[in-house]
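Protein modeling request. Please complete all fields; requests missing the sequence field cannot be processed.
Requester role: graduate student
Desired output: 3D structure, token encoding
Chains: 1
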Amino acid sequence: MTRILAIANQKGGVGKTTTAISVATNIALAGQRTLLVDADPQGNATTGFGIDSRTLESSTYNVLVQQLPIGAARVATVVNGLDLLPSNLDLAGAEIELVPMFSRELRLRSAISLIANDYDYILIDCPPSLGMVTINSLAAAHEVVIPVQCEYYALEGLGQLVSNVDLIRQSLNSDLEVTSIVLVMYDARTRLAEQVAGEVRSHFGDVVLQAVVPRSVRLSEAPSYGQPIELYDPSSSGAVAYREVTREILDQQAPGISVPERSS
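Delivered output (264 residues):
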């Protein structure tokens, strides 16, 4: 059965897209057929693979609004075994255009169902808001992976997101559950990061992954070169951390899949 994960956080700038790109890349490098759906109008997951979002002939917008098959819009990435459904600013209009449409919350789920057998894993990079596109993403997924920035307001936003996931579960997708919380942008030099990490673990227990992603200049640089960190600098602290994050996510339901070590 294809495993579908939504990478979500209603706060912006918390490493959501970096997490989506890195986990998708590592899953593909582990030999699993993988699709990353860029469901964010900013298109950062698209440009993060060196694809110019301004020149796209078709995108997530066309899939959601015009019901274009994903197979006609997906593109290959620089990572072997990893396809991308790209996005651009057109998707911002979908928030309004979807409102009067029939089964508006389930359009992405329907589109994914047609190609699900092509992949072992499908990851959805959600926008940082609870609009129609995010609702579509959560309605299509089995699991939610939440990156949490180790800063002051993290718990406030996290609680709100978990409540919204509960609402989606009750009304649209009874299979949906939060399976992974990833602590990102961890700065070991500050007491605050340690305190936030401790509070998140105290509130959410085993759902919080053991691997912690540190702040890393190399993680910030990689998108400007159109490469995931796993290709740009595989020996960096950020790349090493995301390999561990991916191992934990894979082991939840598919123990034994090996994420390969890489070096520059």
